[in-house]
Write a structure and sequence with these properties.
The chain has 362 residues and is an alpha+beta fold. It has helices at 42-50, 92-102, 107-121, 136-148, 166-183, 194-200, 218-223, 228-233; strands spanning 4-13, 16-26, 31-35, 57-62, 65-66, 77-80, 154-158, 186-191, 203-208, 211-216, 240-247, 254-257, 262-264, 279-284, 299-310, 314-321, 324-331, 341-346, 352-355. β12 and β13 form a beta hairpin.
Length: 362
Amino acid sequence: MVHVSVKKLGVSFGHLKVLRDLDLDVQEGEFIVLLGPSGCGKSTLLNAIAGLLDIDAGQVWIAGKNVTWKEPAERGIGMVFQSYALYPRMTAERNLTFGLRVARVPKDEIARRVERAATLLQIKPLLQRRPAELSGGQRQRVAIGRALVRDVEVFLFDEPLSNLDAKLRTELRVELKKLHMQLGSTMIYVTHDQIEALTLADRVAVMNGGVIQQLASPKELYQRPVNRFVAGFVGSPAMNFISGKLEASNGAPAIVCGDGVRIDLAGYAFAGRPDGGRPAVLGVRPEQIHLVPELPETTSLPLKLTVIEPMGADSLLWGEIGKETVSIRANSDETHAIGESVNAYFQPKRASLFDAESGVRL
């Protein structure tokens, strides 16, 4: 297993600075996911680690060696791209072995590596087919296999599932998780899909504007986002945000919304002493809100329902508190009507509170 470290990395394209002073440490055998919107720099970071582009500053270390100026083939990595990049006139087996044959690896060693990769990826029956005879999921398995046969301990994935339909993405997510458990290799994976990130990763690095906003386990990322960007980007449906001003009279913290509704925050773990009158934003996830006070230490939100979305196993209820819109994930067996006034309940200790100006968690 191999440790990967990026130190003070800087990458620019002309006058555009994409990455600046970026640090990232990936532990041995860890599955790290780089998550963020398009243009945030996640693929640029992956390509810099792979050696596919020149960097302006900083260093890349793999397995204790400074590989900053080494060619991709000398870095001991295997890379899987968004496009399958398979040779159309070669069979799956020839695609798997092409790089090994060019490198003059002995035939018996090539056979051993292909057998191992094909067994792991369950593509042995497909080895004599050409790419045109394979489904999208099968082609991506072959593309992953081409990285596996290199017998390396660091794998880089650049949105490998984005070209697949929803069902295939789900299936291959499971296969990638199993593959990591079997190989124990260090893996760095780029995606803009938060479901992929949360289900695959040991840790997730959420990026925006070329900066890692938060690097944490999926659970910590989801439950304790460090700022409003992370809170809003991670989660589907997105976190609810309610703007107001903090009130800290008599030692009982609360946030007062624009229409005068006071929401009690007793039990919320503030990072520091709350300042009364400070503009703030309360964040509560739809699944943390309930229409009955079934959990201890809850506080209430008076809502008027405006939209009801049946979603099969559950329903998404949309309501308003003043001018703010709030969504609730409710049991599909519950019956509600548009225009109905309800009291919704949540636990302040599970909510998030952010400074209105900086977006930083309070």
